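Run log // design_07
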């Protein structure tokens, strides 16, 4: 297979994956699937570009760092050498704006569906929470990457491996993979979906409550999320999910274990 055939095959595979994602979102009960999918795919592309730039910068820094170094480096020394990368600024400039677009685009769709007002309340506490989360996300993702890098670099010294082994391991780290870009885009896209729905509900006096719905048919579902199916509260109250309080599925207040790969959604209770 030549390069052109390989590219065509890769594009076809991605299209099939995107079509399957659209079907899953529709089957799961999400509204505005074409709009939601567009924002997810845009974020995925931006996220993948950002991860690839970070991978190249990391490789250059690590090669220089381990060159002629005989003793196993400390965590602090590795953290110091990993500083000064463009990852966080690239996230802020390229990826976060796409997520913000998703929030406002989906808010407009929900607001139209619920017959809400014309103006968005930028002073709402929840909107400020969303902004805080988007500003915090780049640092959280870099911390995860740095932890994986520290483990890998130290392991190369513990096992007596050379630079070739280390380069191979760096290229295989899931922290730089397209899969991470896709998982992040889906998780944050669905977070913006539920967050925008919640904001549209809060700014609409006709909506008085909300019901948590669990998507059935998901592989390895969380029992706490299944148990919450049908849980109804006032729109300004919290759901209780596995002992954690949240305003909606994938609320930034939830732990990563309760947010990532969550496919639950809300149904408004209209007066």
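design_07 sequence
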């Amino acid at each position: 297979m030549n390069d052109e055939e390989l590219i065509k095959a890769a594009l076809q595979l991605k299209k099939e994956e995107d079509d399957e994602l659209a079907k899953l979102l529709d089957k799961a009960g999400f509204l505005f699937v074409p709009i939601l999918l567009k924002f997810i795919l845009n974020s995925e592309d931006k996220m993948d570009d950002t991860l690839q730039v970070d991978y190249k910068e990391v490789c250059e820094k690590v090669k220089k760092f381990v060159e002629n170094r005989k003793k196993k480096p400390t965590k602090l020394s590795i953290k110091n050498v990993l500083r000064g990368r463009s990852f966080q600024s690239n996230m802020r400039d390229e990826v976060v704006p796409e997520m913000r677009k998703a929030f406002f685009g989906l808010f407009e769709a929900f607001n139209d569906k619920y017959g809400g007002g014309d103006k968005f309340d930028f002073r709402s506490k929840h909107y400020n929470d969303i902004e805080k989360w988007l500003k915090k996300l780049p640092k959280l993702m870099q911390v995860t990457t740095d932890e994986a890098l520290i483990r890998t670099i130290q392991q190369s010294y513990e096992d007596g491996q050379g630079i070739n082994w280390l380069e191979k391991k760096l290229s295989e780290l899931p922290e730089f993979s397209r899969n991470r870009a896709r998982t992040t885009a889906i998780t944050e896209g669905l977070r913006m979906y539920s967050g925008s729905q919640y904001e549209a509900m809060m700014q609409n006096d006709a909506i008085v409550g909300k019901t948590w719905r669990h998507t059935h048919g998901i592989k390895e579902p969380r029992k706490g999320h299944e148990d919450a199916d049908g849980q109804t509260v006032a729109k300004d109250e919290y759901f209780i999910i596995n002992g954690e309080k949240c305003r909606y599925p994938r609320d930034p207040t939830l732990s990563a274990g309760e947010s990532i790969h969550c496919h639950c959604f809300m149904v408004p209770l209209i007066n």
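Residues 39 and 234 are 29 Å apart (CA to CA).
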